[in-house]
């Protein structure tokens, strides 16, 4: 299997995947397939298992067998990154980030503590291992890889964490002074060995409004000065 090209436009990102003979990939969001080249029988849609239906809120996945080539389209602002998976892979993923995986992948479920499940709204994390596999991860913005320290904590926005090593120690918290702690989402205080994956497309409606409308002084001048809305942009 080979990801042969990626293009990004103002409207979407597309990724084309080339499958050689006997290559098999499972696509968990079949509606994102926007073009397909190959024999019709190479695509077989099937029901997901009960666990997959619950976590993905979807019924159908596609099994595509090579030789074939297909293109995946993503919504605005979303990115696809392919990750090699081997036998000693120890990353735990949220099921919602998985777009596709290759055949032969062994999937294990890791139940979270009640406190962590309440914060993340996910009861189970997924661990993927394979002799030689590939995982397609969809994220809001590009994925950044950050190394953990076994003793010095790293604080990570709960909504930005895509995957973390199984050995990591997590504690929900906030940091900084009292004002800072009131202005942030829940954070994971994380220590351990290995690396984490972060999605960097952070949505902030207030920042978007400020970028579109300018600073406080400029907004006041537009309101106070006659015809300020015309002359002050």
What can you tell me about this protein's structure?
With 233 residues, the protein is of the alpha+beta class. It folds into two domains: 2-202, Mitochondrial biogenesis AIM24 (Double-stranded beta-helix, 4-Layer Sandwich); 205-233, no CATH class. Helix content is 18%, strand content 45%. It has six helices and 19 strands. Strands 5-6-3-10-13-8 form a six-stranded antiparallel β-sheet, with no helix packed on it. It has a six-stranded antiparallel β-sheet with strand order 11-12-9-16-19-14, with no helix packed on it. Strands 1-2-7-4 form a four-stranded antiparallel β-sheet, with no helix packed on it. The chain is globular, with a radius of gyration of 22 Å. The mean pLDDT is 81.
Question: Could you give a short description of this structure?
Answer:
The protein is α+β, with helices and mostly antiparallel strands and 233 residues long. The chain has two domains: 2-202, Mitochondrial biogenesis AIM24 (Double-stranded beta-helix), CATH 3.60.160; 205-233, no CATH class.
CATH topology of the largest domain: Double-stranded beta-helix
Rounded average pLDDT: 81
CATH homologous superfamily of the largest domain?
Answer: Mitochondrial biogenesis AIM24
- CATH class designation of the largest domain: Alpha Beta
Give the radius of gyration. 22 Å
Distance between the termini: 51 Å
Structurally, the number of domains stands at 2
In spatial order, strands of the major sheet run 5-6-3-10-13-8
H-E order: EEEEEHEEEEEEHEEEEEEHEEHHH
Helix content: 10-25%
Label the CATH architecture of the largest domain.
4-Layer Sandwich
Number of strands: 19
